[in-house]
Amino acid sequence: MDLAAGVGLAGAAGLVVGAAAGWTIARVRATTPAVVDTTGEVTLAAWIPQGLDRLLAVLPGAAFVVDTDNVVLRASSEAAAHGITRDSRLAIPEIVAIVNSVRRDGATREEDIELRRPPLGKGLMRARVRVATLSTTTVLVLVEDLSEAMRIDAVRRDFVANVSHELKTPVGALSLLAEAVQSASDDPEAVQRFSARMQIESQRLSNLINDLVDLSRLQSGDPLKDSDLVEMDRVVSEAVDATKLLANARDIDVVVGEPSHAAVLGDENQLVMALRNLLTNAIAYSPPRTRVGVAARTAGQGVEVSVSDQGIGIPDAEQSRIFERFYRVDPARSRITGGTGLGLAIVKHVCANHGGECTVWSVEGEGSTFTLRLPLAPSIEGDQSP
Fold first, then answer.
1. How does pLDDT run across 251-262, given as a tens digit for each residue?
2. What digits encode the pLDDT tens for the residues 176-228?
3. Please, what is the angle between helix 147-183 and helix 188-220, to 10°?
4. What is the pTM of this model?
């Protein structure tokens, strides 16, 4: 091949390669969004994988993609809500530092940090930050709010501590009473007195263990998965029968309202337990020779079961906390009545498990009314429709 032919062939090859490169660049420019920088020069935006928007939408927590200048290219709706981004840029120095470290060495990182809650930044949010590279120019950042998980963990720890304390009290009392009985073996009256007290403490311990078991079962199962049709009039009747001896012992008259003929879907034993707890509280906190009323009625698409008493009532400041575990308005009176502090917590869980709620109305010195609100069974709803 002579020189002229070689030069011609090389020129033709150059034209082909140049045309291919030009077509490729034009194709990239056509499919990649352009960005105008501060100097007015048009450049190509960072490469974004297809379908990333859909992926960010389903990821938990705040998720976003940033470029080499920490400009947010894509973000989920929670990113702005947490105050992590501001004016399309990362606004948290701690996260910026993690992103820069990942960009330097390409290693995926995960760290737990504390963030100020927007918009005023007064509260703290514990967050887990995960950062990984998507390409040479983009980085993916995931921020998961751990505050709720940590709150639940704190509640769990408090619950264990409270259980330990509550168990120590009757166990310690039984130990001391046993020593007292042994020391007073030659005094029949003292032995009888201490023995009676041991029975009370044993019953208190038994009640606490039973309530703990009931509460554990309520938290581990869903009664609506294997629900039955439960007649609320039968629930009322069984709960009243279960508290009849206590009512007679305290000279309390339990008055039952007219039948409601309402039914709900759920677990009958749980519903009876919840209503029994309300009746037990109403009887225990009412003076002798007073009345406790219980009635069920339909209300719209639900059924309401109310328990009213003429007892000591609940202060306004305490009403928002009475459904907490081990919370007692009057600890001294609770020891006298044998309460465990778990009765209303059990009621709350039963209602929540059945898609309902429990509310309270109370006036000090006049009495209280607790109301269970539960959704009617579908068949009942159909019968009531016009």
1. 999 999 999 999
2. 888 888 888 788 888 888 888 888 778 778 877 877 777 777 766 666 667 78
3. 160
4. 0.55
Q: Would you state the structure tokens that stand for residue 286, as one six-digit string?
A: 């009412």
